[in-house]
Amino acid sequence: MSALRSAASLTGRTRYLAGAASLLSAVAVLAGAAQTGTAAAATPLANPMTASVINAPPVDATKWAPLITDDFNGTSVNTSTWSVFDAPTGQRHHVARNVVEANGFVSLKTVVDPVTGAWTTAGMCACKTTTQTYGRYDMRMRLSAGDSRAVALLWGANSWPPEIDFAEFGASGPKGGRQSFTQTVHYGTSAQNYMIHNLINADMTQWHTVTLEWAPGQVLYFLDGVPAGSATTSNIPLTPMWLGLVTSNTQGGTPTQSVDFDIDSIDVYSYIGGVAGAPTAPTAVTATSGDSAATVNWTPGSDGNSPVTAYTVTAMPGGATTTVFGANGTAPITAANFTNLTPGISYTFTVSATNSFGTSPASDPSAPVTVTGAPPTITIAPTPAIVRGVVGSNATSTDLATNVGFATAPGSAPVCSNRLQRSINGGTWTGVTLRSGYTTAKDRLPAAGTTVQYEAQATGCNGLVSAWTTGPALTYRLTDDKDPAVAYTGGWATSACSTCVGGSTHSSSSRNDTAAVTLPSASAFGVFAPVGPTHGAVKVYVDGVFVTNAATYATKAQARQLVYIGTFAA
């Protein structure tokens, strides 16, 4: 937000800069109702400094040449450098007598006019002496607390936007208390004003040095010589602007307190860093192979007089790219880590640089390097487990549903796919369907007496493949209720059952009747039985220890249902 924006909307910039008389005439046409009030005293500030303490960052003489310096050691403003605003009836109510140079600094005041009782403000610009494209500005300042606004800014010499506010203070909150201030780059059009903001927290009722460096494609902000913010973008203004200092009334209201905007010194520099353009290509590109990756190093080329904002590294073969970003006054980027490369492949790398004005050609390629890497591993071998369901597709078959699971661990890259195979009775390995990303699969053993074995393999996203890992060979045995291995006690009855294995089934209604079978070398077992609305439950014991009640009741009669599944410790 600028105190001068309304002036720009009603006056041409060429006439505005023609001289003090036309400047004052242009501001005077801004109509606004007088604001009256009773002045409260400005918040007391420390005694004036006896000597100017700059605390600005070092000046790079290859980029900045002195333009104007003013220590404000006189008794009135130097009008060969400054034009003082005098438009008491204008929108901002600027009055020339509110700009006071004395005691080694200049003070821009917001005060009540002693004659009219109206609130008045102050402003001045170096619009005749600082109109330039790019520049550096060092300002030693302080500002008393209060509810009127103040800003040090650069204003577009020919149109608005552009504008750069490098010390803007609001009328309320921390800004009204002068504990923070904003810095804003304005760009776009008068109809569509875009802004890039920066916020600095500091007690600005004390003396501080605020520095702005405006260069091609970049603005840098400093407070007391310390970096405090930046913007590096193609939207940085690249047309002439001039320096202005103003106070103004509150946002949409009337001040209640007098304010002093004190400036101890201002130093302005012109930019001599050269015409900006795209950077040149980086040089001396090297690469070091790693685990599915490579580290690429380079020497930056010329930045084209505008900070490099990004380097793009391209790998060949394949043309994959990775981009690293950085600028804003930091040290140049000279390295990038390129990941997700395929081990065993020989790669070369090129690097290009980008700034606000374009992108360099690609560098010469690095010497080739062959990328290394580690494959994934199978950490748990594939093993089948009995799952609930029906035993046999019909009364004469004994196929059995299983669930096969295994586990993987990534190598130098995540696991991207898995394979699962099985062998029946020592025969040929055949594939088992796996859903993408899964390490479990449903399978069905063809018949009792089958010996099955599974093996799994994992493939990393880097293309490396694990060894096949084979699980244990397991045999599916089925013990029918008529098998002599089953020992019965009590009054068990045998009845025909066309849907049961073997065409018959045993049943009992006595709590004390038992059926027992010994399972040699078993890792898992299941109990299957008919279920239906006339059935109840059976108690299951393992090695003489009660385990559970297995329900055989169901609303619908069904044969060959697994009612209990158990496992044995290895």
* Average pLDDT figure: 85
What's the shape?
elongated
User: How many strand segments?
Assistant: 40
Find the structural class using helix and strand composition: mainly beta
Work out the helix count: 4
Could you give the distance between the termini? 77 Å
**Major sheet:** 9 strands, antiparallel
Low-confidence stretches: 1-52
> How large is the share of residues in beta strands?
35-45%
Helix content percent band: under 10%
Radius of gyration: 43 Å
Description of the molecule:
By secondary structure, this protein is mostly beta strands. The protein has 4 helices and 40 strands. Strands 1, 3, 4, 5, 7, 12, 13, 14 and 16 form a 9-stranded antiparallel sheet that branches. A hairpin with a 2-residue loop joins strand 3 and strand 4. The longest helix is centred in the N-terminal third of the chain and has 9 residues, at 20-28. It is elongated, with a radius of gyration of 43 Å. It starts with a helix and ends with a strand. The model is unreliable at 1-52 (pLDDT under 50).
Summarize the structure.
It is built from four helices and 40 strands. With 570 residues, the chain is mostly beta strands.
